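BUG: 3D viewer hangs when loading the predicted structure for this chain

Environment: internal workstation, default settings.
Expected: structure renders.
Actual: progress bar stalls at 90%.

Input used:
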Amino acid sequence: MSTQSTNLDKATSWDNICFPVKEEKLQSLLPDNYNLLPSDRQRAIVGTMPDGTQHIFALQSDEYTLIPNQLLRSVVDSVAKDYTIDARYSTRGDFSINVILPDSLKVGNERIYKNLIINNSYTGKSPFNIQGSSIESTNEEKVKVSYYRQICSNGLMGWADEFMSYEEYFNWLANGQPKKYLDALKEKVEHVNIERIKKEERILAETFHHKGLNLEVFKEHLTKILRKFIVQKDSVTGTVYNKLVGVAMPTDADVQKVITEAGLPKKLATLAVERLRFEEKELETEANLWLVYNAANFALFNGKSALTINERFKADQKAFNNIAAMAI
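Structure tokens produced before the viewer hung:
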């Protein structure tokens, strides 16, 4: 069955994505003369939209735990006073929320802003995650740092921050991006905590599901993660960005090849090339790997596609790693 292509809607206020949402027994929503056959999915996730209509986003089992965006808003408000948001969301009930802080980083001639990306879903099909990782695998002591780039109004995920160091990340790329970080290590990478990496391999394999959650415990854990993120300064990803700035892409063929090999669908790859040419003129600079990655990111989150938000982030991660590999 094909899925309809859509553009993601945008919001710069919590109010647009914090509409009332609740779980209701499906039987209670049906006329009295309807009887449900036995099924494990008899709880409806119902949202009351700003225009007064009610949307049923999904049918779930008794194990499912709804995470309302209003809960996320209350946590962010409790730890950050000076911030803005820029969200992307679909009418299907998928949300990607950029929480943008004043702290910034200079990349080439640009300044990008510290950003926390929270992905949530009312469908149950996309996992809840913070900076691209399930909440169980998010280390409260070292949260990945994402950035927000104003020229394209997009959040850039801190993909390289899963690694301890800049050297470890490029070593992993040079070894063909093995699924296990331990396989990527070389003797030249010093002071590597092998036990930490073994643990990370285990927890990164886990997927967070909306099942059997205690929302109070969840809220407490999420608050600790956000507090740590607020004070964290270092970012391996930020260092990688400046590396990408220094690698030029001289020909149209090279640009097209890099974007295509990053795995973007054909229409989005075409949009990425168009965006790249726009930014070259706007920034008055020649194409480089930094602009190529941003063009791919822009296309993924602004282009019309059947990809879910979660699938767009997976494609963005692949694009980032493949483009960064060109800088080796």
